[in-house]
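Record now logged underneath.
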Amino acid sequence: MTDLDHLTQCLARNLKRWRGERGFTLDALAARAGVSRGMIIQIEQARTNPSVGTTVKLADALGISITTLLDHEQGTPVRLVPGHQVVRMWSTEAGSSSTLLVGAEARGPLELWSWQLMPGDGSASDPHPEGAVELLHVTAGTLTLVVDDTTYAVPAGTSATFEAHHAHAYRNEGSEPVAVTMVVSIPPAG
């Protein structure tokens, strides 16, 4: 299956799911999004790959992020996204591209972090407030992510997200440095 086929299948499945969860008929979603009913039917049947603009309109009309609409695997507290499952949104013949690595539904303050863990080092974190989410992308080495005493190997090129109200830790159990870029989303106070 090509990246485009994978994207088309994920979008079809998620659009049907979110439209159903919102209780929107095809006509209601078409009116809210400004997208034709026929286009929505084609998308839900995985017969077309809509433009980024159309996908954003649908996500906005559903009240979710484009990340959630395109997400291939939802519903688990930790989600690993191997490099072969990332979503390439666009590319040019010159080599330019944008790739959605991982995303989450989150509101509130965001923090962007760069981590370097040397072999044998680690860092544990107390649980964050309910609703906190962390997204990370490993650029070198293999990160050992521990969430609620479950260990996940996250190799370079893989992204992950998890509900950060669970106890969690980051470790380098390998022999080379680990480099990680991370976003932490904390829910608004009150």
Summary: The helical segments are 3-22, 26-33, 37-44, 52-62, 66-70. The longest strand covers residues 110-117.
